[in-house]
Write a structure and sequence with these properties.
β28 and β29 form a beta hairpin. By secondary structure, the protein is an alpha+beta fold. The chain is globular and about 80 Å long. The protein is built from 19 helices and 44 strands. α8 (about 360-370) packs parallel to α10. The chain binds beta-D-glucopyranose (BGC) and 1-deoxynojirimycin (NOJ).
Length: about 800
């Protein structure tokens, strides 16, 4: 069943009911100021860091679900309603939510009055605009009240939800223009040099800033006293919970329209500029920001800029084929999700509370892969930030806070795959941009500038970290875990609540990962290429010979007969082997080892992928392991804690499905790769939205696997490396266009169902218009560049500003 439709021309998903199977959300903002907004106007916003600089409140896992957001209440006579249906839930005569790129527009209508609210963050500004259009669609004159409402968060979202003994006494506001602008200034008096405000560009009849007054102590958002009584109380918050609500009295003649612009903004001040006078905050920057958005014309112009921003970004890679589900994912939604994951990592979604994980070392490096072609300069800065959280021995903080850019001590390090992802991120950036100068950047270790070394040296330490941590079989030690956070082979936890990620109850140098070995063989050569290009041939040779050695070890010690083993445990026993009782086969090493080219010639690779098909594939995607664990296995850790079919225990953990797609292209099987692509690709799942539950325009981290209670049900949408890896798989390996060091590789491995397609790809300032005539045979491509046939599959990079015509026959 569907709950809306794609509007490709406008790059929107149009939701036709507020009662979607789960709140379907969108993101506002692209650089510093971000918001999440659901199709019921639920959500919140923050500046840079969803934990440390939260502007508005949201309660996760609340009942009713998705309560708290930016609400507009209409009171006409005795009828109170919201254009977003909730929180009041008065049945509407019409409802629509359009989630677009960086904006959402929710429209509701009741009794001939239509109220449409456009939410967006203007490019380069630190605020949200809530542009309200009121239209009297009836034949009568209408007189009604419009109430706005947001609830302030006291900045640190975690503290805000826990430290009530202090927080109930700290809240402070200032009110200007009779409530037209409400300033939230909690803790401004002391160490905070920032405040927030909520403004409307029209006179108001009243306001409220105290939550209890607005709602009533025992009322929810669906029954605010002030709205139902039709009378703002002009309350001034003193402690407790400050909010911002304005009331406007509106009369509209038949057919008449009124436009309002609400601005929810954030201001940072220099310490010396904080005050206008004693206890009065300096409002100049806020007033200036407001002045840029105080009319419909200005708001429209900003929306235009946002749309142009996305048109430009998305023109870097686009496909035209006969399959519109494919085209809309590649051209719009997959790239959009890549931007969101780049910005958010795993911090703030409707499944990630915004206070947990900050930016992940491995996550952010992988998120780069699908983002780097959009804005290479931002990827560059991100790489430098990530690298600065690496330790001198090559290991790394597993996470860091986006606001401070400092490693997160609460989780620390010890995930032995982390270092290698840095090399992959750096290589992706250089291949995209040609900017080898990044390798010379001096980058701190552990954020200590006095310990700076070149980024190339950081990559060396990443590579060597593996070599310094080799186990008894010659394979990389796993540490706390590798990519699979839940395979905790040194954890041995018996204490409820103990973190599987940070606990190592046994000090072991036995548990080894075949997955890291696959990464080493796949990613190591990228470091060799870089260092060679920097003139150090001897180092490149050393690296390549270590990689060769590891490849041999994988085939000798990491092969189980029909597939690659997953690991060796603390006791040196095989993990992911036919000899195991459960979890005989895992997806990750099959993907990464084949991507690395291991066993392609010898036939091991094909065997491994055939085993994936036989044991791991199911109608909804490829599960992580099989059979699922049914008991807690103390020597394996968190993986065996999940009920069968969920998350890392035999869920379809979508992130690694594209590794198998890519692996299938490595051994030249386009139909298999395509089948796997479609199985988890959200646009192909739109018709089963009732089962799938999460948004049909973005990937989810996990779809319940074949052993689950409800196979096919997805969770954890938006913030997942799935977005990035699927874009890599489809754009670089199936459609087959990928940047290499010296040229654009054009080597499709695409289903015969798509017999012809055109890709427009921007790279290093030039544009490539590539027409592919596809037999579906996975043959070496025959390329004609600018009318001339060339050898091989690489189109040399052309000068910036030029357009190159490429014909590819395969
Ligand atoms: C989840 C993982 C996640 C980890 C770290 C686990 O409970 O299953 O997917 O990466 O926690 O937060
Ligand atoms: C989610 C984490 O963010 C990611 O780093 C990890 O690789 C996967 N879970 C798998 O455990």
């Amino acid at each position: 069943m569907r709950f809306g439709h794609f509007d490709d021309e406008n790059r929107e998903y149009v939701i036709s009911t507020p009662k979607t199977p789960y709140p379907w959300i969108n993101y506002l903002g692209s650089e510093e100021f971000f918001g999440l907004v659901s199709n019921r106007a639920g959500g919140y916003c923050f500046f840079r860091d969803a934990k440390l600089r939260r502007l508005t409140r949201y309660r996760y896992n609340n009942v009713p679900t998705d309560d708290g957001g930016r609400y507009f209440y209409v009171k006409e006579g005795d009828t109170v309603w919201n254009p977003s249906w909730g929180p009041v839930k008065t049945e509407l005569d019409a409802y629509e939510c359009r989630h677009g790129l960086g904006y959402s527009r929710i429209t509701g209508a009741k009794n001939g009055l239509s109220v449409s609210v456009l939410f967006f963050v203007p490019v380069g500004k630190t605020c949200e605009v809530h542009a309200v259009t009121l239209k009297n669609e009836s034949k009568e004159k209408k007189t009604f009240q419009l109430f706005s409402f947001i609830e302030w968060c006291l900045w640190n979202a975690e503290d805000d939800m826990t430290n009530f003994q202090r927080n109930y006494s700290t809240g402070e506001v200032e009110i200007m223009g009779g409530g037209q602008t409400i300033y939230h200034k909690t803790e401004f008096k002391e160490r905070r040099n920032h405040y927030a405000f909520y403004h409307v560009n029209s006179a108001v009849s009243g306001y409220d800033t105290d939550r209890q007054t607005f709602l009533g102590l025992y009322n929810g958002f669906h029954e605010p006293d002030v709205v139902f009584s039709g009378k703002s109380q002009n309350s001034k918050a003193a402690g407790w919970s400050p909010v911002a609500s304005q009331c406007l009295e509106i009369t509209l003649g038949p057919g008449e329209t009124k436009e309002l612009s609400f601005v929810l903004g954030y201001v940072e001040l220099d310490k010396s500029q904080k005050w206008e006078s004693k206890s009065v905050i300096n409002k100049k920057p806020a007033t200036e920001l407001i002045a840029t958005l105080d009319s419909k014309a200005k708001v429209d112009a900003e929306l235009g800029k946002l749309k142009a921003y996305w048109t430009n970004l998305l023109s870097g890679y686009s496909v035209k084929s006969s399959d519109d589900k494919l085209d809309r994912m590649v051209n719009i939604w997959n790239q959009y999700q890549c931007m969101v994951t780049f910005n958010m990592s795993r911090s703030a979604s409707f499944f990630e509370s915004g206070i947990g994980r900050g930016m992940g070392f491995r996550d952010s490096n992988q998120d780069l892969l699908g983002f780097v072609h959009l804005i290479p300069e931002r990827a560059r800065q991100r790489i430098l930030d990530i690298a600065a959280t690496q330790f001198e021995d090559g290991s790394a903080y597993h996470q860091y806070q986006p606001l401070t850019k400092r490693g997160n001590n609460a989780i620390g390090s010890g995930f032995n795959d982390d270092p290698l992802w840095l090399i992959l991120g750096v290589a992706a950036y250089i291949k995209e941009s040609g900017d080898f100068s990044i390798l010379d950047e001096q980058v701190a270790f552990d954020n200590d500038e006095s310990k700076s070394k070149s980024l190339l040296e950081h990559c060396k330490r990443s590579f060597d970290h593996v070599l310094h941590n080799i186990g008894p079989n010659g394979l990389p030690l796993i540490g706390r875990a590798d990519w699979n956070d839940c395979l905790n082979l040194n954890c041995f936890s018996e204490t409820p609540g103990e973190s599987f990620q940070t606990t190592e109850n046994r000090e072991g140098r036995t548990a080894e990962s075949i997955f890291i070995a696959g990464m080493f063989v796949s990613i190591g050569p990228m470091y060799a290429d870089m260092v060679e290009r920097k003139g150090d041939k001897a180092e490149a040779e050393r690296v390549r010979s270590e990689v060769k050695k590891m490849e041999r070890v994988v085939l000798e010690k990491g092969w189980d007969g029909d597939w690659f083993l997953r690991a060796y445990d603390f006791f040196g026993k095989k993990v992911g082997s036919k000899d195991n009782k459960e979890a005989k086969i895992f997806i990750e090493p099959q993907g990464y080892c084949v991507m690395a080219g291991i066993g392609v010639e010898s036939g091991h690779a094909k065997k491994a992928l055939d085993s994936v098909k036989e044991y791991l594939d199911c109608p909804y995607g490829i599960v992580l392991n099989n059979p699922a664990f049914t008991e807690y296995v103390i020597e394996y850790g968190e993986i065996s804690t999940y009920p069968a079919g969920y998350k890392e225990n035999a869920g379809i953990f979508c992130h690694n499905n594209p590794w198998i797609m890519i692996a299938e292209t490595v051994i030249g099987r386009p139909e298999r790769a395509w089948e796997y692509y479609k199985k988890i690709c959200p646009s192909y799942l739109e018709d089963i939205s009732d089962l799938h539950r999460t948004e049909p325009y973005v990937y989810a981290q996990m779809i319940a696997g074949k052993d689950a209670v409800k196979p096919g049900e997805a969770k954890n949408s938006w913030l997942t490396g799935t977005g990035s890896w699927n874009f890599v798989a489809i754009s670089q390996y199936l459609l087959g266009i990928r940047p290499e060091w010296d040229g654009l590789v054009v080597q499709p491995c695409m289903t015969k169902d798509v017999a012809e397609y055109k890709v427009t790809r921007r790279a290093r300032g030039a544009t490539y218009e590539i027409t592919v005539k596809n037999s579906g045979q996975a043959r070496p491509a025959k390329l004609t560049v600018g009318g001339k046939a060339i050898e091989g599959n690489q189109v040399p990079y052309a000068p910036a500003g030029t357009t190159v015509q490429v014909l590819c026959e395969v």
